Amino acid sequence: MAGPSEEREDPPASPSPTVVRFDRPREGSRPVLRRRPSGEAPPLPRHVSRSTRTFLGAGVVVALLWTALSTTTGVRVVTAGDLVVLRGIARVRSDPLVDVVQGLNTLGSPWAFRVVGWTTLIVLAAVRRFQHLLAVLTVVLVASVLDGVVAIALGRMRPAGVDIVGPWDGYAHPSLPVANLGLALTAVLFTLVPGGLWRTRAAWAAVAVVALLGAARLVLAVDHPTDVAAALVTGMALPAAAFRLLTPEEAFPVAYRRGVRAHLDVGGRRGEAIRYAVARQMGENVTAIEPFGLGSSAGSMPLRLVTDAPGAERQLFGKLYASTHLWSDRWYKLARTVRYGRLEDERPFNTVRRLVEYEDHMLRVMRDAGLPTAEPYGIVEITPDREYLIVTELLTGAAHPTDADVTDDVIDDALRVVRRMWDAGLAHRDIKPANVLVRDGRVLLIDVAFAEVRPTPWRQAVDLANMMLTLALCTSPERVYERARLVFSPDEISEALAASQGVTIPSQLRTLLREQDEDLLGSFRALAPPRPPVAIQHWSVRRLGLTMGVLGGALVALALVAANLRLTGLL
Amino acid sequence: MPRCEPGQRLAIVAQSVPDAAYLPCIAGLPAGWSFTSLDVDDDHTRFTLRSDRSDRPVHVALVPSCDTGSATPIAPRDEGVRTYQLVESVTTRYAGRFYDVFAEGCVSYEFDFARGPHIALIDELQTAVRLYPRRQLRQELQDQLGISLDP
């Protein structure tokens, strides 16, 4: 690992504000640490695609159009232009053409919107993609409210001075049938169609369908051209930008294969950015990046980094944290607080930076306390405040206890690890087979993100119970209990078992316990001195407030959903 | 809300019943009255007014024609307009309809007031909703916005 006093590269004469170039060092040579100068782009600048910028630009143009339509002069000028186009279309209009476009105009009926809208909502609920479901409800609500408010505020009449040959309803601007169909199809595109080629093809098809409807309405002279144009922006362009913001493909991919999780893509630009950042900030030349242990991680993106350190290739472990993980952490902690009460003392992090700082800090506290955890190497900045990588040693050659030979020495070592945490005033808070490793007969703890300094006695007792249950999965309660008596007093063991209840056991451990023929917790309790259960449902003002807030929020959300469905014509 | 002034909000009312000689509009809402909904399409215009002294709204509709049935003619509200009144209840409530019938159109006012405040409410309704001549609107739209109301 490069130290702070090593050779440093001079900053470039004219830093580029946006382009990150990474010239790979020669094989076997170490990259040079380099401070990012002021004004230079971070390794992975926040990316706004060209099409998103175009959509947002279209939104600005439409806002200017609305400003114009709110003035007498603007109405006169815009309407004059609209009518020139409509009169031109009306001149080539024929009865057969009108018959055809009247058929096309049914695409804009409320029923088309209802069928597409409800299908989208039902499929999203069925496949349990609730982020997408929430995004659809939010975007549809906001877009519908926007269209409704603009329609009422401008109060635009239908085209004048030209024969209207189709049905119409309400104010003309923006064209609500076009906006609603566009909105429904955009929701389908971004929540049901997998990203990539399929979505691109589907997008063209959706644009074609909505354009046909728009063209039909111009032929029928029920809308002005600017009514249709504004509807395309409020119904498709702005919702598309909103879906990209609310459910970015990299964090919420649309996929129908089982087992796909919301992990980040570490190829492409992000992969290059990670290589660049690790090289410049840690002096390590990364030659390969691959997901690692995804199955047991939902709160971060675990990675194995292969570096070509001089003389020998070595592997590092990285945990990539992004804004989506921060939100997951917030929801998880809110749920735990509501469910468990004040004993958990959960506080959400404000930023990704704080989240990674905490985990890195806990790794170092654990290490300084002599606890066997992965050696922390530091934090790498990928995108300031939004994306960071925690780098530690990769514990090669280690296996989870369920896959390892768990001897009495291993049991003793695991129990001593808990004792050491107690002595150091620490709690791991997530002890389960996935977070315990065995290597050369010694126990290692990983994933210390939830660890706590000076936890409650209850929380420490739960750590012991969970460790005993984890060990008993691979051995027997009797054997673990006997070894535990060598490290803990009978009272401490019975306190741990009294503190252990369903909700205190991590879900992975709970699942494995259910698969056992024997009730391991019951067997432990039969061995230990009797003790009444330690109550965990401790109510506090904070918990009460949070619970009321959550219930109130849920009711408001339900009311909003109902209002949303009614307002948008889905009900 | 289609106010009794030249503008697109009144123009779309005119478009809903082409050639109707008069258009219902809001001259001004008396104290306690509110405009609650507007439904305008290629066949009619309907809007609803509500008074804080009545538990039921007043529905005003512009349609191409009305069946006045047994309604009684009363003093016309405007030149070229025939006004009718049909009272359906006078006991516990004062309920019924007014009709303003004119060339190519008709405006109906459906009311159902509790007895007592109904006299004042009827007066206020007739003050709030006026008839705007289409000919006048056509000329004003042409002058102000350069828009020809009718093809």
Major sheet: arrangement of strands of chain B: 2-3-4-8-7-6-5
Largest sheet, spatial ordering of strands of chain A: 1-2-3-5-4
The average pLDDT of chain B is: 93
| Mean pLDDT over the residues of chain A | 87
Shape of chain A: elongated
- How much beta of chain B, percentage-wise? 35-45%
> How are helices and strands ordered from N to C of chain A?
HHHHHHHHHEEEHHEEHEEEEHHHHHH
Walkthrough of the structure:
The complex is a heterodimer of chains A (571) and B (151). In chain A, the strands form 3 sheets. Chain A has a 5-stranded antiparallel β-sheet with strand order 1-2-3-5-4, sandwiched between helices. In chain A, strands 6-9 form a two-stranded antiparallel ribbon. A two-stranded antiparallel ribbon of chain A has the order 7-8. Chain A has helices at residues 50-69, 72-91, 95-105, 110-126, 130-154, 176-191, 197-219, 225-246, 268-282, 323-340, 352-368, 408-424, 457-474, 477-487, 490-499, 507-514, 520-527, 541-567; strands at residues 286-291, 301-307, 314-322, 376-383, 387-393, 426-427, 436-439, 442-445, 452-453. Chain A is built from 18 helices and 9 strands. Chain A has 571 residues and is an alpha+beta fold. The N and C termini of chain A lie far apart (62 Å). In chain B, helix 1 (8-16) crosses helix 3 (134-145). In chain B, a hairpin with a 3-residue loop joins strand 6 (82-89) and strand 7. Chain B is 21% helix and 41% strand. Chain B has one domain (8-145): Jelly Rolls (Sandwich), CATH 2.60.120. In chain B, the strands form 2 sheets. A 7-stranded antiparallel β-sheet of chain B has the order 2-3-4-8-7-6-5, with helices on one face. In chain B, strands 1-9 form a two-stranded antiparallel ribbon. Classes of the chains: A alpha+beta (571), B alpha+beta (151). The interface between A and B is medium-sized, with 21 and 19 residues.
